[in-house]
Write a structure and sequence with these properties.
Layout lengths: L5 H19 L7 H30 L2 H33 L25 H8 L4 H7 L2 H18 L4 H22 L2 H16 L8 H26 L4 H18 L2 H14 L5 H14 L2 H17 L6 H17 L6 H12 L7 H4 L3 H27 L5 H9 L7
Helix pairs in contact: 1-8, 1-10, 2-6, 2-7, 2-8, 2-11, 2-12, 3-9, 3-12, 3-13, 3-14, 3-17, 8-10, 9-13, 9-17, 10-11, 10-17, 11-12, 11-17, 12-17, 13-14, 13-15, 13-17
Length: 417
């Protein structure tokens, strides 16, 4: 196992865990503490890793104008891909019609009780991103507030330049410490993925054959459609990255995303693979990926789109193009404000249904089968982060190795003079 790369180890662990979960079903749940320990280790490193890497990434760019240019491109990719993911989700749901013929008598309140979320507004969302107490945000793990505070510090350090060289050295060394600690935690990834996959399949595996099978299938088709229609275009046309290499390198990120169902929990692996395998410069990856893990929720956008159409079809409610257009705007806003943690979309989906004037009763039933849905959408979330980062890396020439750039130029000979 030591001679295998991380992706191979994780793949073997995921397959083995899946098989044991199918064979032993709920009897395999004695492994749950092992998976919980792995998740706790991830949680332990995420906040300081994001805090230091964001500061260091921005400070190392070294030029406020360059930072403005790179930041605007990253945010532009995140917002545009979220909007397009929502549209693709709506189209797929309208074509597949997962709620057509669904018997409303099957709707029962199962699983955990669902609490209604407070209505979300543009002003409220922006305000909630700004920390009133940065230390409180750090201690509570409020990632979007941590990122905002770290971004301000990084920008100020960039403006001050050599005047804060001592602080910059401290941040750089602290980042190196966190990356080393991350490497140590990542060595336990195959064990954690094995336990999480076994327990997830053992507990939820049979749910995919329930009355919600078409609902689940629509989510997977929607996610795959985003990859095929949107991500492949960005990878090939904008990032100009070899597709076979991309999918070979992204597999380890997918497997951890499937297991943790957390964009933030997958972040350490995303950072490591993006820098070590895709060879994106640290100052870009350490800025783009933590930001993406918090605000770039393409998978959640697809989830909201499919869920809205599903519920509307169940109750025979026809949503007009105007209503669906309004839904795209609301979904983009909500997706940006959705934390990258497991099952965060449940409560916000209730709020979204209420906002659209649709019944939320079905959500009690969806809770029981949310895990397999969350798996594919988390994978889509983190893939979107990497794809957008590669696109910006290409546009800004922010790859570490000349060989990587040369490989991509093979796909784009027309740009050579």
């Amino acid at each position: 196992m030591k001679k295998m790369n991380l992706a191979t180890q994780v793949l073997i662990a995921f397959i083995a865990g899946t098989i044991l979960g199918i064979v032993f079903q709920k009897d395999i749940l004695f492994l749950q503490p092992v998976g919980d320990i792995f998740l706790r280790l991830i949680q332990m490193i995420v906040v300081p890793l994001i805090f230091l890497s964001i500061i260091g990434g921005i400070a190392n760019i070294g030029d406020v104008r360059k930072l403005r240019r790179i930041g605007s491109k990253i945010l532009g990719f995140y917002v545009i891909t979220t909007i397009l993911s929502t549209i693709i989700g709506l189209v797929v749901a309208n074509l597949m019609q997962p709620g057509k013929g669904f018997d409303t008598n099957m709707i029962v309140a199962t699983g955990e009780p669902i609490k209604e979320a407070a209505p979300m507004t543009v002003g409220g969302t922006i305000l909630s991103m700004i920390p009133a107490n940065p230390l409180h945000a750090l201690s509570e793990g409020n990632l979007i507030q941590v990122i905002i505070f770290a971004a301000f510090l990084g920008v100020v350090m960039t403006m001050l330049g050599d005047k804060v060289s001592t602080v910059k050295k401290f941040v750089d060394e602290g980042t190196q410490i966190m990356f080393t600690l991350t490497d140590l935690v990542m060595k336990t990834t195959p064990i954690g993925v094995f336990a999480l996959a076994a327990c997830s399949i053992g507990e939820y595996g049979t749910a995919i054959f329930s009355v919600l099978a078409m609902f689940i299938l629509t989510h997977y088709v929607g996610a795959i459609s985003v990859i095929v229609l949107l991500y492949l275009f960005i990878i090939k046309v904008i990032a100009k990255y070899p597709l076979t290499d991309f999918f070979r390198k992204i597999i380890s990120i997918w497997l951890v995303a499937f297991s943790t169902t957390s964009s933030s929990g997958t972040l350490p692996v995303s950072l490591k693979v993006t820098e070590d395998e895709f060879h994106v410069k640290n100052e870009l990856a350490s800025f783009s990926l933590p930001l993406g893990a918090t605000i770039n929720m393409n998978g959640i956008a697809v989830y909201y789109a499919v869920t809205i159409i599903f519920v509307a079809q169940i109750y025979g409610i026809d949503l007009t193009l105007g209503q669906q257009a309004m839904f795209i705007f609301i979904t983009t806003l909500i997706s940006i404000g959705t934390p990258g943690i497991p099952a965060s979309g449940i409560v916000l989906a209730v709020m979204l249904l209420n906002t659209m004037g649709l019944p939320a009763t079905i959500m009690g039933m969806i809770v029981g089968i949310f895990r397999p849905i969350d798996m594919i959408h988390t994978a889509l979330n983190v893939t979107g982060d990497v794809v957008s980062t590669l696109a910006v890396a290409r546009l800004e020439n922010m790859y570490d190795t000349p060989a990587e750039t040369a490989d991509m130029e093979i796909l784009a000979p027309h740009v050579e003079s």
